[in-house]
Amino acid sequence: MCDTYKTIKSPASGIYKEKGSRFLAFAFPVSHEGSIKDHLDELRKKYHNARHFCYAWRLGPGKSNYRVNDDGEPSGTGGKPIYGQIVSRDLTDALVVVVRYFGGTKLGVGGLINAYRSAASDALDRSHIIKCQVIDRLKLEFGYQQMNAVMKVIKDRQLDVEDQKFDLECSLTLLSWTRNTELVLDTFSKITGCRITLIEN
To answer: Do residues 82 and 152 share a domain?
Structure first.
């Protein structure tokens, strides 16, 4: 699996108009399914008189967790073209919702696909795409007398400390770029009195 991935930094919006129908697109960075539901609920409340809320999302550095939803539009005309825009930019941890206000004229299958794709594309074109590292979480346990050696490795390897507990027996939760994890595990395992394990997500 790749040790970096691309996502969007902050929410962005776009719009597409066709034969009186308006397609308002909203792109959000998301890290779990709970926040997806929150964004959808918020949009449904804000645009309560809109006809459709089609969306697509993809989660996780492995990019295998995704969903598309046509919300009452003909099958494959809403969620799929939106998802195609996420895929074409190689994004993950991203949600795109397109809110449709019906203008009275039917667009047909081809017209709908083009409209949802164009609206999603506009929102993503306006978003700030960033590259992120895939991070592993490690649990390190050690005696107080190993503190200096442990802190030197943390500094040398530029590890982030997510959680810490200092007592006679100390424990730290460390964040390591996947690319460096094997080396970090090896380095700590050579310090007498240190136990380090990979925390499964």
So the answer is: no
